[in-house]
Amino acid sequence: MTSGYWVLLALPATALAGVACERIASDYARRIDAGAAVDGATLCAALRAASTTVFLVCAAASLACVVVLILMRALGPLALARAGACMVLLLLALIDARCRVLPDALTQPLMWAGLLLSAAGLGPAPAAALAGAAAGYLFLRGVNAVFVFWRGHEGMGRGDMKLLAALGAWLGWAPLPEVLLAASLGGALVAVLRWGRQAWRATLPFGPFLAAAGGFGLVRGAVVQFPF
């Protein structure tokens, strides 16, 4: 199958999946703003509310494109799993951008899925995946502890730590410095463009940048060279 035909099917599936994720994230953020708990029940309620005709059409069209790709052997099991992981990352990024929360109902299943796929022989070696999950969480936990000691309050949420742990489970430990570098540079650039000289005082959610860097890592490999 030529790359042109692959793109013709993959891009519509990606766009339709993005529409579905945006709809779910909007409904979830609305419920959180209304006082709902940040838990799996609220997320499930948002999923049910999003199951309208538009959402079902988007999901059906995306599934049809994926099935065609599988039948034409243009999408293997690992690529299919990573596509699903990218959808979850997109949903997490949209939720964090709206209500500054990364729900455990998404980050923890994402991490366990990466570990289980690694154990099944898909993705990095099990030892690398386990080390990546541990390193991702512990590194950001350590950075946050230093920030608390220095400034007297936390600099990031536990959801960021769990998201990096999930990315470590999918990518292994080696690409994590690259993911963090790309996410940090992206966040710094957005802060400077938005607030200028006051950027160092601003706060913005880190989840969207982590999700974007992790998504590029899943789709295209390393973001930058590991030694750098």
TrEMBL record:
Pfam families: Peptidase_A24 (PF01478). It is an enzyme of class 3 (hydrolase). Residues 86-192 form the Prepilin type IV endopeptidase peptidase domain. It comes from the Bacteria. Belongs to the peptidase A24 family. Its EC number is 3.4.23.-. Gene3D superfamilies: 1.20.120.1220. This is A24 family peptidase. The chain crosses the membrane at residues 45-71, 78-95, 115-140, 161-193, 199-219. Keywords: Hydrolase, Membrane, Transmembrane, Transmembrane helix. One of its GO terms (molecular function) is hydrolase activity.
